[in-house]
Amino acid sequence: MDEHSRTHSRWPLLLLGLLLAAAGLALAIGGGKLLSLGGSAYYLIAGIGVIGSGILLAMRRGAALWLYALILFATLVWALWEVGLDWWQLVPRVAIPCLIGIILLLPWWRKPLHSRGGSLALVGSIVAAILVAIASQLSDPGSIEGTISNPNEAASTVNPAQVAGDDWPAYGGTNAGTHYSSLEQITPDNIGELEEVWRIQTGDVAGPSAPPEITNQNTPLKVNDRLYICTSHSRAMALSPETGETLWEFDPEVSTMGAEDFSLWAHMTCRGLAYYDAANYNAAADTSEAESDSTSTDTALSFDIFDNSDIFSLNLSFLSLMFGTGEEGNATPMLSDTDVMCPRRLYLPTADARLIALNADTGERCANFGENGEVDLTTNIGDFDPGGYYSTSPATVTENLVILGGHVTDNSSTDEPSGVIRAFDVHTGELVWNWDSGNPDDTEPLAEGETYTRNSPNVWAPISVDEALGMVYLPMGNATPDQYGANRSENDETYSAGLVALNLEDGQVEWVYQFIHHDLWDMDTPAQPVLIDLATNEGTQPAVIQPTKQGSLYVLNRETGEPIVPIEEVPAPQGAIEGDWTAETQPRSALNLLPPPLTERDMWGASPFDQMMCRIQFNALRYEGQYTPPSLEGSIVYPGNVGVMNWGGVAVDPERQALFTGAKYLAFVSTLVPREEVEEGQGSASEQGLQPNAGAPYAVELGPLLSVLGLPCQAPSWGDVAGIDLQNAEVAWKHRNGTTRDSMPFDLPIGLNVGVPALGGPITTAGGVSFLSGTLDQYLRGYDITTGEELYKARLPAGGQATPMTYTGEDGRQYVVVTAGGHGTFGTKMGDYVIGYALPE
């Protein structure tokens, strides 16, 4: 070979050597920074080794292979020492170093080095890495394998108030919020045959002037032989349950409330409608009288008539109720004038703070409810920014009342609307009582011109009711701002971030149990309380289960508020910002899905480089475990304020005494910003970024803990599904759930099964299958509740950030329906779809 050829052949090795040395230099510099923060010395040592290997490679020395083989083998040993056989933790530590080793063995680089021994050493290190990768596929350290037992005698009698059947008449199935259906046509054996049978598009799509967090979170109702839905802009629609055909549509024509357009709002959503049928309550009363007085079958006949929804039978029912009497002259209950005009009605909360009553048969306003069918929810509320106050969750309807709270924008200012909960007459819309946690003992409606307590904790999640006990259960939020609490009142400290039980008749407090003391982490109670009669060693107890963002499932006696599952006050980190304070302890339930505390070893990335950067972030931020107070340098909040569980809540099977839920694991960072460093008007319109906290001495910067590549800094799983045995109060199984398919920068028909977050709730059925659709990837999934095995998935045309529901159609088929419309800040594809599934005919 002439001199020109030899010179030319040196360039590839020189170039590769220089690239390797540059990579080593980056590792060494970052590793030095990490070591100075008290972190791992590996990156500095490995960086120096890679620099040496690169220089030797550029010099065409065979020792480059020997040195790199040693680096790779040492990296493998270090990785196993740190994380064991955890595949997803091994990937950023070993995958790229192994790939570089394979490149070095290619003939173009290996042959000029003339080092057979070095080549064999490098082959040995690569084979060892491959064997470890294979072994790591045989287990998942984060999973729990187990089963939930079949129904037993202790739970054989199920309270009908906790079960949805052929219909789905309330957001949570019933006012008990169990998300459970007694239908059993779809089973683990046949769920694989489930197919899409209809699909509609509502036409309500997110335009260029939509709020940052516009969402489609609606759970339909099925009742009155119709399917009822609402859309992001508060439109209501009635559909055919069997075909999805639109039967009627109502548009409240939501106003911008003085804003230039909706883009200045923070949120826009409608999670659902509420339904009322006067006949159901009258029929129930008739049946009760018939049983107690041993009357004739006339009343029972009246009940059967009322169970039919056609207009002819309804007219017969009116005649029976208004003129019929039982034995000994006892008159049956009579319908009110408003019920005669609007016997079946829907209650629609709108994004511009109205509550509208609609005739469920026709979609027309119930004119005798409030003013022309609507109640103005801004009454006695005071000033607020457009979109800053309204009910995102559906109302709860009882025999006499329609009860609802409201969303209040987080972290906008210290002068926001009250979190008052109001109960209106179900017939007329007249305010019956109001409960304002800032003035908890006075539940009489306010006089005109008076204002509820500004900034008092609110209830934005759905409310549950036990009409037999006469109690209302409120999942309480916080006074704003979330991360600074120095100026909160005694009532704020008493009622925020907990569960409050009110008397249904007058709104007076029966009991309160707080789940977070002096909350500085936005851990408001986010989901509908679940009412279940729970079999325990002391016999069946009336229980309420409250899912929470912090991961605990608090199980209380719903009559007394006393814990059924033990709750321990655990020590909490101290050292809040000057002027504020932290509680010494925080309550933690023995039944929880709380992840282990983060360590530097849990930091993750797509490569050693961004993983190293995440480790640097971790050590530079403040983190002393759960409930680390917000700080000027930035504090890690884990679980983050998006919560382990959020508004989707949980599904409870009262027969199996089993609970099914999704769980999210994402770390967030909370950084306090002194007021003098915040420019007037500066702040994010969403719940991430700079939150202005006007009126407080600090604004706050909020966001997930991400790598430089935009990936979560903590290792997966970021989302699981879990099954809980309620009788033994233990997690029976837990598995990763969801893939990266729709989170990749390119479109592939598959995704990595890392386990991704889900925003949306689950349901479960007597058939032994559960459904969840809220994951970052666009699927509706079905699971075996006994083992958690994923049995079925259907591709959705948009994000499914909603809770599915199920019912029986007139054709006798069991349907599963889900809204697929996406979520603005969750980052899923937007759409306007509602889709129905059933088994083949």
Structure in words:
- This protein is α+β, with helices and mostly antiparallel strands.
- It has 12 helices and 42 strands.
- The strands form 12 sheets. Strands 1-36-37-38-39 form a 5-stranded mixed beta sheet, with no helix packed on it.
- Strand 6 (236-239) and strand 7 form a beta hairpin.
- Helix 3 runs antiparallel to helix 4 (87-104).
- The longest helix is centred in the N-terminal third of the chain and has 34 residues, at 3-36.
- The chain is globular.
Cα(first) to Cα(last) distance is 77 Å
Main β-sheet, in a few words? 5 strands, mixed
Assembly classification: single chain
Major sheet: order of its strands?
1-36-37-38-39
Tally of separate helices: 12
C-alpha Rg (nearest Å): 30 Å
Q: Would you count the extended β strands for me? A: 42
Q: What fraction strand?
A: 15-25%
What class, by secondary structure content? alpha+beta
Principal-axes shape call? globular
If you average the pLDDT, what whole number results? 90
Helix content: 10-25%
Uncertain runs are 1-8, 287-333
